[in-house]
Amino acid sequence: MEKTKVVMVKDYINNEIKHGRIKEGQRLPSCREVSSTLYINKITVNKAYKELEQEHKVYSVPRGGFYLIDSQQKKAVFPEIIDFRNVALEQRLIPYREFTHVMNKAVEMYKYSLFNYESEGGLLPLKDTLKGELEKDGVYTRPSNILITNGAQQAINLSLQYVFGKNKGKLLVEKPTYDLVLKLASHLGIEVTSIHRTEEGLDYKELEQIFKAGEIRAFYIMPRHHNPTGYALIEKDKQKIAQLAEKFNVLVIEDDYLADLGSRKGSMPIHYYDTSKQTVYIKSFSKAFMPGIRIGAAVFPQSISEEIKNFKYITDLNTSSLSQAALDLFIRSGMYQKHINKVKKSYERKLKRAREIFKVLSPEGLNWNVPGQGIFIWVQLPSHVDPHFFEKRLQQQKILVKNTQEFYHQGSEKDKNGQNYIRLCISGVTEKQINAISTILSALI
Q: Transmembrane helix: is it a keyword of this entry (predicted)?
C-alpha cells in the first residue's frame, strides 16, 4: 500500500540519521537517489519527505532539497551571542574606510570654517544636497525648512517640546509604537493616548473620532518600516491621515527613519499627501548608515520652522559640522547610494531566509510578519507562552530577542492586553546567524 511505502522511506531516513550517515544540517539524499535505492516511486519519496517536514524533523529549501533538523539542533546553544535586539548596523557593512576618506577631505575643504559653530539649522551645502535627496522620496521643501539634528530622536524631542510647550492637549501614538517616544513623553509630562496599529493599518473611523474630540495636538506615526512591527501603510491610508490631520488641525510627526532602505513601488511618505504642508518629516542617517554619526534631518512646516531652529539653538548650539561636511561629500560622491544598495541587498537576503524558515518551521496558528524590506520581524506568541519567560529561555541559548511590553502605552487596563509578542531585529546579525530563527521556533514547538 502507498502508506506502507511512505513509512519505508521514513524508516530508511531515520535509520540513516541514527547511524550518523545523515548529520545535523546535512542535505538528505535526493528523491531520485532514494527512489533508486528502495525501488519506490519518486512521488512517494517526496510525500515521505513532506511528512518528515510536517513533523519538524527536516526543512526544505526551495529548489535546494531537504535538510535535517535533529534533536540536537533544537537544543543548540550557540558559541556566540546572537543578538536580535540590536538595531545597529552589522559591523562588516559599516563603511569605515570610505567615510574616513571623506572626513579627511572635509577637513581639507572646510579647514577655515569647519571647527566654528555651524550655520543656523545646519551646514548649508548639506541642506542643499538633502533637498535633492528628499525630493527623490516625494518630500518637497526649501533648504531653509530643513533642520539638521543630532539624530532623529532630537527632531522628535524638538517637535514635542515645541507643540506641548505652547499648548495643552494630548499626543496620539500608535499601539505599539517606538518605546523612546513613550519615555520622552513621560519625561516631558505629555499626556498620551493610543490607537491600535495592525497589519491592515489603523481604524480610520476611530482616528476621526479621536481627532474630532479636539484634545489631540500631535500624532506621532511611523507609516513605513514601523517599529516594532515592520508594517507599512498603503497609500490611501496615508492620504486619509493627511486629510484628517488637516481637517482637525493636528500636527503629524512622521518618523521615516528607514526611508533609504526602500519600500513598495510607489510608496510615498504622508508628507507627500499633505497639501497644507503641516507635517513634520523626520529622516535618520544612523540606522542604515553609521550609528555613531548621530545625524538626522527634519523638515518642518514653514510656519514653525524658524521657531524650532531658535529653540534648537537655545538647547543645543551645535550638531557636529565635521560629520555634516563628511556626510555631504559622502552623498554627493555617490558612495552613500552604493553603501545603501549593499545594505539593502544584505537585508533582503536575511529577510528572504527568515521567511523561508518561518514558512517551514512555524507551528500551526503562529502569527508572524516578515516584511519585504526593513529590519524588524514581528511574532505573536501563543497565548499560553509568557514573553518574559520565553525571552529568558532563549537567552540561556545565547539568543537575544525583545519582548514588546515597553512598546505599548500603558494608559488603561485595556492597553495592557495583547502584548504577547516578540520583536526580532535583523540589522545587527549576520546572514548565517539568521538560521538561529529555527531554534527560536523549535523552542516554541
A: no
